[in-house]
Fold this sequence. Notes:
One of its GO terms (molecular function) is ATP binding. Residues 348-582 form the ABC transporter domain. Keywords: ATP-binding, Membrane, Nucleotide-binding, Transmembrane, Transmembrane helix. It holds the Pfam family ABC_tran. It is found in: Cell membrane. It contains 18 helices and ten strands. With 590 residues, it is of the alpha/beta class. It has two domains: 2-326, ABC transporter transmembrane region fold; 348-589, Rossmann fold (3-Layer(aba) Sandwich), CATH 3.40.50.300. The strands form two sheets. A six-stranded mixed β-sheet has the order 6-7-8-3-9-10, with helices on both faces. A four-stranded antiparallel β-sheet has the order 2-1-4-5, with helices on one face.
Amino acid sequence: MEVAQSVQKFKTFWKVYLWCLSYLFPYKKIFVLFLCLSMFSSVIPLIISKMFQHFIDHILPTKNLNNFNLLIVGIICIYIFMLLANAKKNKIGIEFQEKASRDIQLSVFKKVRDLGFSYYEQHPVGKTISLFTQEIPVVQGMLRYFIPVILESSCELLLSFIFLMTINYKLTLLFIPCMFIYYLSGPYFERKAISYKEQYSKLVTEVDKKQYDSLSAVLELRVYGTEKWDLKNLINIAQESSRIFSRFFFFMDMYAVMRRVAIYIGVVILLLVGYSLVRAGSLTIGEFVTFILLFYQIMFKLTVVMTQINKQKMNVVNATRLYEFINLSPHVKDPDNPVKLKDVKGKIELKRISFGYNSDNVVLTDIDLVINPGERICIVGSSGCGKSTLSKLLARFYDPLDGVITLDDTPINKLSLKELRDTIGYVFQEPYLFGTTITENIRISKPDATIDEVIQAAKAANAHSFITDLPSGYDTFIGEKGSRLSGGQKQRISIARVFLKNPQIIIFDEATSSLDNLTETKVNNAINTLLDGKTVISIAHRLSTIRKYNKIVVMDKGKIIETGTYENLMAINGRFRQMVDGRELNNDEV
Ligand SMILES: Nc1ncnc2c1ncn2[C@@H]1O[C@H](COP(=O)(O)OP(=O)(O)OP(=O)(O)O)[C@@H](O)[C@H]1O
């Protein structure tokens, strides 16, 4: 069982690691150039140490000035070459590292958008934000620092070992016991550090999520006087996360200590063995000095590579989460060969639709409904009966479990999502407003709209007068999520958006619920006159102006139980009549 788990972990590691490397692939040419320059820079210290060896073994004993001068000129030229090569290497290194880390950020951002509505409804926002604050910087760090350092240092090590083997292979083999000492306890500390790092990452995500929730619910917490309780919860998670971080740091530190111990022991052994080889005449003094110089350098590089590899393993923990996120497939997908509709008329048909957010909780059952082009229908029913869910299926925020929805007799899953959503305008009960100006907020439905078009749309939504009363009119900044506006004002901005977009089908999901009766009547009149010829689907809690709809659909427990005009439904004396008679809704609102 443990072996199978280890194999699985190993496979996951490489899968994720190669995925990270794939971000360097578009820049492979400069990456190869970078590696070549790294190799070049790595050879130079070896040449220099060979010169030192020559200096000690041949120039010092003979005191030959010409040879000495030649050596100095040679060293200066080599250093100049090294400086130039390093400058070029650093320049191109930055180029591909920055481009690759920008690419990863963009691909995560694109994924967040592709996943769509169902993802946002099922996952806490704090968790998604944590991808940007935690996981992306780690993977960017891998691309910017770890991967180039490991590759560069590995090249350098390989060349150094070959070089040392040519001087004295016995002394070179001394590196093996030194590394053995390092690895004797290293893996233990490493495993511990990785496990604490995993726990720490999860806790940081929790803290992010909690902070987001606390900020979003600041009003509710104040109203219920539970701010202290909320703060205590946050502090508890934050304290636990810093405790885990200290543990992680301790084990990382122990790991570094073992590295130093291995180097110190190595130096002592090198002196003992090297001295006996010099005495036996199988090693010159110059070679011995070269060895000592390179020993520090190589041991340092070797342990750097190993530490970086271990850090990479820890980083792959974060990268795995990003990898899993990037590989999530959206529940609602674009068709491979979308059908293009000519002149959308706006006929919608639902045939035997069933749907549930999860398989054991069916929200809609056997829904059959035809909405003709230009028809205005109103969906009513008790809270939680599935009205909004039904409207979400029309714009393919979700796909039904069973049945077909057609637009102008074409199944909507055969249309591109863009075309479908260009055809349907949606006004939500709680619209999202951006923390920018009124104009920009209205314009999001048609970014190239002129200011005149924006004003016309605002007038139609009965928003113009309150907008012009604001200090900077249409240029007024409305605060985070439109916090400086009332619920009704926000709804009117949202309605203005849909007027501006002017789609063939419009869905109002309790879009006028925050308006007072007078404003609601005005907005509904605008809907009636401006949306002439458009298909309108309205979900209503209050039954004001309901008589104006061509068809009323009454829902109960996920089913359509009555359909007809206001007069028909009143005449059949069924559920709708009960609602109108005030047993469920206020009669005077009709
Ligand atoms: N994202 C979701 N995930 C899981 N269940 C959901 C989700 N959204 C709604 N539901 C459930 O589906 C059922 C129908 O919800 P829906 O919002 O469609 O009702 P509604 O008729 O529009 O209610 P209301 O009039 O109160 O807005 C409810 O039981 C609700 O809890």
